[in-house]
Design goal:
By secondary structure, the protein is mainly beta. The chain has four domains: about 40-195, Sandwich (Immunoglobulin-like); about 200-330, Immunoglobulins (Immunoglobulin-like); about 335-525, Immunoglobulin-like (Sandwich); about 530-675 and about 720-745 and about 765-805, Rossmann fold (3-Layer(aba) Sandwich). It is built from ten helices and 47 strands. It is elongated.
């Protein structure tokens, strides 16, 4: 029974299949036809024949409209839209912003051409090369876009640019995923109108107001638009150039007369090589070309050059010819190059500072070594006045340049003062060497290094980047905004030991170069190890005066070193005046590491009690010298305590440590700030085998003092002493530091100006001389009293002790 049922069921299925096959035989097609998409415009502006919008057919609309649309497809997916603009005669037209249309139907699908015709706006296909213009057959283009809106600038002017209400029609269609297009295009009509714009013309550097300019200027155009709610975007600018003569009138004004034959036609600023339509370069070699109105400074302005500008807005409406400037083109203007000394510095293992200079607006490059920051610093000047540094394989040198007029101060009144200070406001004037603004721009820089053109790999094979002067001198020419910018960074092998020279000159819009290129020459020395050093260098930081007469002090120090058989060199530290600027670097430093590292011992003295020396300026060179095994003696007065306080305030922890001093606010104190009070020092009492040093005066030695106050008071007052302990730290002096001299105070009952018991207890045995053994191998001595005031043979014995240790 069960098998019979199965046979009957199988027979029924077979009959059903045969019936289906027979019913479909000889038929083809789809079960359901594709339904075309529909589209509507969703914006409110414009009019059509609908009951809602037809009443607006006599309404004027702003020429620029942002038109939105929406499309649906009940049986598929919308894949694109196409739109076009028709004039009042239903002819397709291109409009600003939609400049390319398929006028002949080359790329328009056949079903679109058959139903609507050509003239649809063209678009790039995805991933197409947009450097190829859309009107080129090589462009990958289409009429379809995925945008759901379009910004249309409808025409609102006649063929002469005069404003006139103009009727235009906008149409948009859609296509679905099976290529079916809308049966009816969505459309709107617009009576477009536009107000007449204004045009302003000047130069990129302002209005010359009839003044002299160079033979290279860049015209600058702006448009003021009075159409509400529309951005002031120009379609094109045009200008005329002419020569005029000016005639003064009796009321203080003048009349202009155009010189016949000099007026050009209207010139369009659109340039395929320069997308900026609001600028136009004029030189003696452009079309049109500038010509001179003035040849020499002695010549009157025979003529003027006048520029008249006009602008067309996106509706095609032209401005009145109101924008104009005039100027006198003069020969002889040249740019002036500036190398900014504040922005020249180097960084390497042998040239750096260990602190961030908070007093400088410059952000210095830095590196990190052993967890500590090392900052770039400017070049020192050696004793010859040369810029110098000790080099290393990782040395980098930064050099920045610019031009006269690049920076200045802008006052509240709007007045501008060029300063050539790179930390002031960038004003971008171009001034010649006589400080005259000739309304130009800097376009290029020419660079040389060490007697040849500067080498820069990206420009190596570009002939336009290499310039040769008539004398055979070669330069690398870089544009203003090249990757190099206005700073070169020199690295090995350009920073090997030796003399190096960097040269730079500016090039302006005239194509003229600075006839006097700026140069920066610097000398890099190799590091000299301590074993190769010899001689003693004396740094005299005493200004000549009654309390420190140059001749006597110099003789005193020479005597102290008279037993030394090596060379002794004395250098006078110049005062901080402009007369000696060539001997100091940008930071007023006099001592360079390259000079210091030549000597076995450096002896610095600032012995004048009434005047502070310049030790605080010399931190950087001394720091590097001491960090490489240098030996040094410092002799000073009360002013030493002030210097040490400044070192601490400026974060010079390492420098203080090289003398064995703690990094605290005041590592030293002083006994008196004047020669007339507390004249208690009569002796520096030697410690650790160092000989005593007695104050030189008739009452204490067989020689008189060179200053009467010491003679009369039998003592010396302006002494610094070093803090040895504090309540929180019984040993302030760093390990490796030894007190080698203590203050020998007048007895309480002394016959001339004795101390009180309290004063004696306070000052006697204070540490006034310390020695520190540096881990780098060098030794330092710091004396809070002036060696030149001490008895000569005693001071000489102390120097001999020092020399025996190094």
């Amino acid at each position: 029974m069960q098998s019979k049922r199965i046979r009957i069921l199988a027979l029924l299925v077979l009959v059903l299949l045969l019936a289906l096959l027979a019913s479909g035989c000889g038929k083809s097609g789809t079960k359901r036809a594709n339904i075309a998409p529909t589209i509507t415009i969703t914006s409110y502006e414009g009019f059509d024949d609908s009951e809602l919008l037809k009443p607006y057919e006599n309404t004027d609309f702003a020429f620029q409209q942002k038109i939105y649309w929406s499309a649906t497809d009940p049986d598929g997916v919308i894949t694109g839209f196409a739109y076009r603009v028709l004039d009042e005669n239903d002819n397709p037209i291109a409009t600003p912003g939609n400049d390319f249309i398929d006028a002949d139907g080359t790329i328009t699908p056949k079903n679109v051409l058959d139903r609507y015709g050509p003239g649809w706006v063209m678009h790039y296909l995805p991933n197409a090369n947009q450097d190829i213009p859309l009107d080129s057959p090589e462009a990958r283009r289409t009429i379809w876009t995925s945008q759901k809106y379009a910004v249309i600038n409808f025409p609102a002017a006649d063929e002469n640019g005069e404003p006139v209400v103009t009727l235009s029609k906008f149409e948009v269609i859609a296509v679905d995923n099976r290529g079916e297009i809308t049966q009816e295009a969505a459309w709107r009509k617009f009576n477009a109108t536009s107000e007449r714009p204004d045009c302003n013309v000047t130069t990129s550097k302002g209005d010359p107001h009839g003044e002299q300019v160079g033979s290279g200027i860049k015209l600058s155009f702006t448009m003021h638009d009075y159409d509400p709610y529309i951005s002031a975007i120009p379609y094109r600018y045009e200008f005329k150039m002419m020569k005029i003569k000016k005639q003064a009138t009796t009321n203080g004004n003048y009349t202009e007369t155009v010189i016949p034959g000099t007026e050009t036609e209207w010139i369009n600023t659109v340039n395929p090589d320069d997308p900026a339509i609001d600028e136009y370069l004029l030189t003696r070699y452009t079309d049109p070309a500038l010509s001179y109105d003035v040849i020499s400074d002695d010549e009157d302005k025979a003529t003027y050059t006048k520029i008249i500008g006009r602008v067309f807005d996106m509706a095609g409406v032209v401005s009145n010819n109101q924008g104009s400037i005039h100027f006198a083109v003069k020969d002889g203007f040249r740019p002036k190059t500036i190398i900014y000394p504040q922005k020249i510095y180097a960084l390497g293992d042998n040239h750096y500072v260990d602190y961030a200079d908070e007093n400088s607006p410059e952000i210095y490059p830095f590196t990190i070594v052993g967890g500590a920051q090392r900052f770039a610093t400017s070049f020192f000047r050696n004793f010859k006045g040369e810029h110098t540094a000790v080099t290393s394989p990782n040395t980098k040198v930064w050099i920045r340049w610019g031009w006269h007029g690049e920076y200045g101060k802008v006052h509240d009144s709007g007045a501008v003062d060029p300063t050539d200070n790179p930390y002031d406001t960038k004003i971008d004037y171009v001034l010649d060497k006589n400080h005259t603004n000739y309304f130009s721009e800097i376009t290029h820089f020419d660079l040389r290094y060490d007697g040849d053109e500067y080498e820069y790999a990206p420009y190596a094979n570009d002939p336009s980047r290499h310039v040769t002067d008539s004398d055979g001198k070669r330069w690398l020419r870089i544009p203003l905004y090249s990757p190099i910018g206005q700073t070169v960074v020199l690295t090995f092998p350009r920073t090997t030991a030796g003399r190096h020279t960097f040269e730079v000159r500016c090039v302006d819009l005239q194509g003229e170069v600075d006839p006097e290129p700026q140069t920066f020459t610097f000398v890099l020395d190799d590091y000299l190890p301590p074993a190769q050093r010899s001689g003693v260098l004396i740094i005299d930081d005493d200004m000549d005066g009654q309390d420190s007469p140059d001749a006597l002090v110099d003789a005193k120090y020479n005597y102290m070193l008279s037993d030394y058989t090596g060379d002794v060199v004395t250098k006078k530290r110049p005062p901080q005046t402009s007369d000696y600027a060539y001997l100091r670097d940008h930071k007023d430093r006099f001592l360079s590491t390259t000079d210091l590292q030549k000597y076995k011992l450096v002896l610095y003295h600032s012995d004048r009690p009434s005047q502070k020396g310049n030790l605080s300026f010399e931190h950087d060179g001394l720091y590097l010298f001491l960090s490489r095994g240098g030996n040094m003696i410092i002799s000073s007065t009360t002013k030493l305590a002030e210097d040490l306080e400044n070192f601490a305030k400026n974060g010079h922890r390492t420098f203080l440590s090289y003398f064995g001093l703690p990094f605290i606010a005041s590592p030293a104190e002083y006994m008196s700030n004047g020669l007339h009070t507390k004249s208690f020092l009569q002796k520096a009492k030697g410690q650790e085998g160092y000989p005593d040093m007695t104050l030189q005066c008739s009452a204490l030695t067989d020689s008189s003092s060179f200053i009467s106050i010491v003679e009369n008071q039998h003592g010396f007052s302006t002494v610094s002493y070093f803090k040895e302990s504090a309540p929180s730290n019984p040993n302030l002096l760093l390990p490796g530091t030894t007190v080698v001299y203590r203050l020998g105070c007048k007895p309480v009952g002394y016959s001339v100006r004795p101390p009180t018991e309290a004063e004696y207890a306070l000052y006697n045995d204070r540490a006034i001389g310390i020695r520190h053994l540096n881990t780098q191998g060098g030794r330092t001595w710091m004396y809070g009293f002036p060696l030149s005031y001490m008895y000569g043979p005693h001071a000489k014995a102390m120097i001999n002790q020092v020399l025996s240790e190094i």
